[in-house]
Amino acid sequence: MSGGAVVLLPVTGIGEVVEGDDLAVLLVDALRDEPLRDGDVLVVTSKVVSKAEGRVRYDDRDTVVMAETDRVVATRGGTRIVRTAHGLVLAGAGVDASNVAVGSVLSLPVDPDASAVRLREALLHLVGVNVAVVVTDTAGRAWREGQTDIAIGAAGLDVLDDHAGKTDDYGNPLAVTAPAVADEIAAAGDLVKGKLARRPAAVLRGLAPRVLPAGSHGPGARALVRPEATDMFGLGARDAVQAAVDADPAALRGVGAPAAADLVAGRLGGIAGTTVSPVAGGLHVPLPHDDPRALGRLEARLAVAAYGLGWVVRSAGADFVDFAPSAAPAAADG
């Protein structure tokens, strides 16, 4: 959509940022030799936004991580992947112990989208230019080594470029293609910001067609957060097994929306070797006559299988188990 080259410009000369600093003023001063222009995209690391907003915490990191955690997704050794109140899935809830005073840590902004809006409006007021703002943080990828910057806040930008309903050059319809534009911008900006160079911001020039009019801020980076009901990777592999064995109701959010009843009936019937029938609000699984120990093992297998599909035991008797969908958010499931 840009139709041409995109230029990446590092923002240098920004010193230590502390609570109460006017980030817009600091950025304008740092950009005095290369002022912002209409249509620029300003990429700012969440670290300086958090510092300016007073998000430094004088407590041990684990305590702050748990305070910022909405739900634990996976743990492996000393690494804890969590879902934050923002809906972001990050190692250690994005809590950072680098480039802060010893004995303190830094939490993410409370509302990164609101932070982006405030910075965008402040820049418009200070220098009269209409720019988009992307607030970034670093995240790993579930299937790949390394990390990349992603957008956790955005203003003045459509964060997704939805191609649904369009066709490619061969006439094939596009149904699910939706480039995450804000994430691509965040990653590009980090190429010139860097983790060790003390350059907390970058300007991307050449994306003016993507910048929304002044006063129109777009959906924000929250639009990039996948709803839990459709998240196919809401728990780590080991964590999913453990949650199912424990029948942990709190972890059911990580399983996603309950699977369709016919799918569940097929799975449970195959395990039990019986015909599963629908009952009001759930499924009835008759148990074969067997010795108590074998029945106990079978009931445990059924409960674990149902849990993995977002269903839970509703009632049980000597020769049956009834299951019902959990209270997880509803969504289409096949």
UniProtKB/TrEMBL annotation:
- Gene name? cofE
Q: Which UniProt keywords apply?
A: GTP-binding, Ligase, Magnesium, Manganese, Metal-binding, Nucleotide-binding, Potassium
Which EC numbers characterise this protein's activity in its record?
6.3.2.31
Q: What is the lineage of its organism?
A: Bacteria, Bacillati, Actinomycetota, Actinomycetes, Propionibacteriales
Q: Which InterPro entries match?
A: F420-0_g-glutamyl_ligase, F420-0_gamma-glut_ligase-dom
- Going by the entry's taxonomy, the superkingdom of the source organism is recorded as Bacteria
The top EC class, named as a word, is: ligase
Q: Please state what the protein is called.
A: Coenzyme F420-0:L-glutamate ligase
Q: Which PANTHER family match?
A: COENZYME F420:L-GLUTAMATE LIGASE (PTHR47917:SF1), PTHR47917
Mention any Pfam family matching this sequence: F420_ligase
Q: Name one GO molecular function term.
A: coenzyme F420-0:L-glutamate ligase activity
Q: Where is the Coenzyme F420:L-glutamate ligase-like domain?
A: 15-57, 64-206
